[in-house]
Design brief:
Strand order of the largest sheet: 1-31-30-29-28-2
Shape: globular
Largest sheet: 6 strands, mixed
Number of helices: 3
Radius of gyration: 21 Å
Number of strands: 34
Structural class: mainly beta
Helix content: under 10%
Length: 523
Amino acid sequence: MSPRALTRALVLTLAVGAATFTGPPAAQAEEIPKAPGHRLVSQYDGAPAAARPVPGQAPPQHPFLAPNGRSGMHADAAGSGTHPYSGPLGRDPQVTSEKIAPIGGECATATFDAAGRLITVCGTFTGFLLKLLDPRTLDTLAEYRLPQRSSTVEAITRLDFSKIFKDTSGGAYFYLDDQDRVVLADSRQHVLRIAHRQEPDGDWRFVVEDDWDLTAHVPHDCVSWTNLFPSGVCDPVTSVMPDWQGRVWWVTRLGRVGTLDPRTSQIRAVRLAGEEIQNSFSVAQDGVSIVSDHALYSFRADADGTPRIQWRQTYDRGTGAKPGSVNQGSGTTPDLFGEDYVAITDNADDRMNVLVYRRGADVPADRRLVCKVPVFASGASTTDNSLITWGDSIVVENNYGYENPSSLVFGRSVVGGVSRIDVREDGSGCDTVWHSDVRSPSVVPKLSTANGLLYLYEKEPNRLGVDAWYLTAVDFRTGERRWRRLTGTGPAYDNNWAPLTIGPDGTAYAGVFNGLVAVRDRD
């Protein structure tokens, strides 16, 4: 088939699949196929670890979120990247997977309802799918199709698939609320609150309980199959999170910050002119922490819900986006930790820095910065994933060199590296505790505080051209790799910026380009 004919076929397929609807009934999981070469690489390295819980204070439980560890991509309101459950220890770990779509199908945020069922959003070329999965079998219990993103239409019609890989909007960042309802912003600039229910016949389905339209506050002349050449502005909604009063905060790619009061449907918004927001954000009782491609902000809402800046802190954004970054700015969601700290990374040209600030509204400007720690090698240092924070410790992963699933084919990898940095007890600065050479190209890593293991998604260079992907466990205390388990081979197992998530039953889940992978110790 010629490229032009292929494009026409894809356009027709995607146009037909662009509608929003409640999906098919329960379906059995289909395994993601492995590429040739999986028998030429090690299946398991290392030895099982003993659980060694990490002492420390968990982030405060948000009153409007599901319990910590199962409410969103970064596990809790503080963005800690920690789970209170013990993940796999490496005892004969078993791997299962679900193939979501023939092409694509990556599952990003993974959450869990009170019964432990897995709720996730998976991206396909015909649109995002909100899915309810059995956490053991990965069978689909219910499915709801979200509207197609404009970036997908642009990618197909203009043959530029970077549009998709650099788009964080459309529902990838969602949260599960305190009543097990999904709250997300779709590609129409609507905020949806979606419940899941079991019918008398035993089947499950998703039900949209609330639909709030933001288009009066957000430009929405976006590319679609009926509007291929828009003349106006399209500003996709990146992420949503609740504050301690129950308002739903939302941010857009072009720097809009807004609130929605679910009780009154009142919407308020401000704009950070000339700035871009591509990450999610974090929330504590003292405010909402948002990072743009220019600065870190702390916000509160006025009585009428209008976002108000408490303080703004610029950082070194460098001179351009690096390979391994979505844009020219920090790639991290702010982490709120310790007594009153907030941590991000910058985008400095030579070496990225981990930055720790005091987040109090009354902190003098000359005392806000706690430390600035350069990490990884000169000219090869960036991250586009959230930090992990626990106690006064920070873990950062190097994503330099990763762009999309085509970046690492034919046995290639990244320079890699993971480091742990601790804030000194007296708050006088920070110190590097350890550095690991593990190459974890693009995963959102996680820490199990119940067993003391960091979970990464590893790929090493391979002279035979085999693209082997591993779930890797690293000792949080020492940085030593304890074990790793092959999940699969080939681009279908590339995790492409998706997170690792530890479920209440001890399973580690990884979103991958073709769906979802689960790793658990043998019973």
